[in-house]
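Supplementary Methods, section 5.1.

A reviewer requested that the exact input to the structure prediction be made available. We therefore reproduce it here, unchanged from the version used in the analyses.
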Amino acid sequence: MRALSVNHVRIDDTFAEAFPMRATGVVITADSAQWARQAAVTMTGFATSVIGCGCEAGIDRARMVIAAREDDGENAFIALVAKDLNPKVRLLAVASSALAIRRLKLARADLVFSPAAVGSRLLADLVEGNEISPAFRDLLQGGLQEG
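The structure derived from this sequence is encoded cell-by-cell as follows.
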C-alpha cells in the first residue's frame, strides 16, 4: 500500500474499493487549528475501514474535486491542496469572474467555469441581436420574442 504524507503526518491507505460509494468535498474553517482538527476528527471519525461502516474518507483515490466556494481564493486553495494530495485528481473550479479564470488555472485547476462570463456572453449576444443557442433559451425569463 502507498502511504500518503501531509505536513509530515503519515496517512495509511486503507480504502476498500469493493463497495459502491458517493463522495463530497468539505472545507473546514475554524478560529484555531485546534478547532479545525476537532471538526475534522469529529466529521471523519466514523470513516473507518471496518466492513459495513457505511462511510470512508480520503482524497488519494478521488477522480474529481469540485471547488465551488463563493471566494476565488478559497477555490484556488482547494485546487492547490487537492493537487498536492493527489496530483492525478481532476479539478473543476468555479470562478466568480472572467479575470479569476487565469488565476484558478495557475492554481492547477483542470477545468474552470465562470457563470459570470457565460452570463456576460449571453447578455452581449442578446443586446447585439445574435442567435441564442437553444440550450440557453430556457434560461431566459419570459423566453425570446420571435418575429
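The first strand starts at residue 4 and ends at 6. These observations are discussed further in the main text.
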